[in-house]
Amino acid sequence: MAQPIAPESLQHHLTARERLESTTLLPGFQHLPGYFDAAQQAELLRQVGQVIEQAPFYRPAMPRSGKLLSVEMTNAGELGWVTDKDGGYRYQPTHPVTGAPWPAIPDMLIKLWRELAGYPHPPEACLINLYRSSSKLGSHVDADEEETRAPVISVSLGDDAVFHLGGLKRSDPKIRFVLHSGDVVVLGGEARLAYHGVDRIHPGTSPLVPGGGRINLTLRRVSRAEP
Ligand code: MD3
Ligand code: FE
Q1: How confident is the model at residue 105 (pLDDT cuts 50, 70, 90)?
Q2: What is the CATH number of the domain that holds 162?
Q3: 11-22 pLDDT tens trace
Q4: Pocket of ligand 1, candidates 30, 75, 152: which has the most ligand atoms within 8 Å of its Cβ, to mutate?
């Protein structure tokens, strides 16, 4: 059962306490509210729209059980994160349905990585998650990347989402806060291997995504490069 959400977390910016909690419990976690303004969000969505034309959303399934996720996914980059019943969680260079190579990562996202990643090599994967009104993403760790010294960088577009961030163990306490369109989250250092997930979407809170909902972009480095 999900914990109730503290009213003070239902606001745009992290409270001073949340900022302190998240950065002291998990060094390497950074929330940058409103990093992209409305015009930049529209341009980023346009660039992402071009990716989606070449690589349409598909419905991922859990390994073994084949249970469908409520989030639709696609990717850009040399590698894309995919999951299906038979193959399980993995990175691969092609779309699991069309078989085509993933389109290039949009320019604005390459620039974002250069600005914030503090890692000398470019991202290899951009996972694109589409949340409609009842989509959610259960608590998990992103552990399929060989290179854990690079951060994961997330960009939110569209409807507000209630996000949770826990610790290195599933049973660790979680903090919850709302991610808004234009927000960026950087998960580096210890936070890189923390449990996290999306509890719910607040439908109708943004007009940005056609048909309503939320798109989350995550930039990832998968393979280790020297040095
Ligand atoms: C915290 N996506 O794609 S992004 C995912 O909003 C994923 O779609 C969520 O979790 C979403 O794997 C959350 C923010 C995020 C991404 C990676 C993290 C938070 C993280 C890795 C470690 C800790
Ligand atoms: Fe994740």
Answers
A1: very high
A2: 2.60.120.590
A3: 345 677 666 666
A4: 152
Q: pTM of the entire structure?
A: 0.91
Both tokens assigned to 224: 């280790």
Q: How many residues does the chain have?
A: 227
Q: Is the CB of 142 under 6 A from ligand 1?
A: yes
Any ligand 1 atom below 6 A from CB of 220 = no
Number of domains in the chain: 1
Determine the pLDDT at residue 2: 39
Q: What is the mean pLDDT of the chain?
A: 92
Instruction: Tell me if 72 is assigned to some domain.
Output: yes
Domain boundaries, position 103: 25-220
pLDDT at residue 9 above 50? no
Instruction: Provide the residues around ligand 2 (an ion) whose CB is within 5 A.
Output: 142
